[in-house]
Amino acid sequence: MSQYPRRALVASPTPPAQAARAELADAWDWCPLEEADLVVALGGDGFMLQTLHLLLERRRAVVPVYGMNLGTVGFLMNEWRRHDLDGRIERARAFKVTPLTATATAGDGRLHTLPAINEVSLLRETRQTAKLEVRINDRIVLDELSCDGILVATPAGSTAYNLSAHGPILPLGSRMLALTPISAFRPRRWRGAILPDKTRVSLRVLDGGKRPVSAVADHREIRDVVQVDIEMDRARELTLLFDPEHALDDRITMEQFVA
Prior knowledge:
There is one protein chain. This protein has about 260 residues and is an alpha+beta fold. It contains five helices and 18 strands. Strands 1, 2, 3, 4, 5 and 18 form a six-stranded mixed β-sheet that branches. A six-stranded antiparallel β-sheet has the order 7-6-17-14-9-10, with no helix packed on it. The longest helix is centred in the first third of the chain and has 13 residues, at about 45-55. The relative contact order is 0.17.
């Protein structure tokens, strides 16, 4: 008997994903997402992130997700193949992904709590550089960072925006976070930091009236923030399933050798 008897099927609205969904429609007695003990997701990395956020919102974070790539990069996905789907799922390796939680304080005083699987980033809203105070566990480590922005990335997200901003690739089991500046102007030589994942990072916006800053957690944005506090949310670990030959930890390691 399958260890995942109740399965839900979700797909990106793109034509390839919808065609694949039609192929799989009769392959299993699919159930609603709310009743599933496994989710099969068809699409790209962006759709996978949407699916994981949907599970977080519905308090279904314990439900594992097996993704198949019908998008562009598919870093978080397995190869699309209809053949032997049951066997692939049963043989798949499970990887735990711990999301971040960002508590963003807006200029009007409202608090916004945002989960992030890849990264939380602060970005300037105008042509002027942002000015930020950086605190690590309530200790000021940078009085003033002038930059286009800054981000905190998880190991799973370290090969995404963080890598494009020249941040470090973090092995999946490293229990580290990447703190990476985006186009730092002052201090010009600061390239960021690698921090234990139990660290609490606080970013305070300086001169926000003149130099407004947005906070973005994966795909959700809060504008005109004055402070953002970021830490791991260990109570809501997510599980991704990968074919043994396409394991997430190996993919992250091999990204360090891509020319």
